[in-house]
Amino acid sequence: MTDGASPAPHADPALARDCTYCRGWGTIITDLGRHELCPHCQPVGEQPAPAPQPSDARPPAGARYASPSGPVATI
């Protein structure tokens, strides 16, 4: 995999089996070189949301945590 590339989405092989558009793979490669689910045989909009990145994760309100720069704090 090259830098900045994302892994290919997971296709349902049972749905892709007889698809002539993706030739049974369930994914296609776009003109921009990205892997995407086949629009002809794979359901659209049922993909799981991407996992949150560590910078996106916030502790719940009132949680106690140790700050890297000081003592335990309460949010």
Please outline the helices and strands.
Blueprint: H1 13-16, E1 27-29, E2 35-37, E3 64-66, E4 72-74
Antiparallel strand pairs: 1-2, 3-4
Q: What gross morphology would you assign?
A: elongated
Number of helices: 1
The strands making up the biggest β-sheet line up spatially as 1-2
Helix-strand category: mainly beta
How much of the sequence lies in strands comes to 15-25%
User: What is the total tally of β strands?
Assistant: 4
Main pleated sheet = 2 strands, antiparallel
Mean pLDDT: 75
Q: Helical residue percent?
A: under 10%
Low-confidence runs: none
Termini distance? 40 Å
Q: Rg to the nearest angstrom?
A: 20 Å
The secondary-structure element order is: HEEEE
What features would you describe in this structure?
Helix content is 5%, strand content 16%. With 75 residues, the chain is mainly β. The strands form two sheets. A two-stranded antiparallel ribbon has the order 1-2. The radius of gyration is 20 Å and the shape is elongated.
Tags for this entry?
mainly beta; 4 strands; elongated; 5% helix; 75 residues; 1 helix; two-stranded antiparallel ribbon; 16% strand
What does this entry show, briefly?
This protein is mostly beta strands and 75 residues long. 5% of the residues lie in helices and 16% in strands.
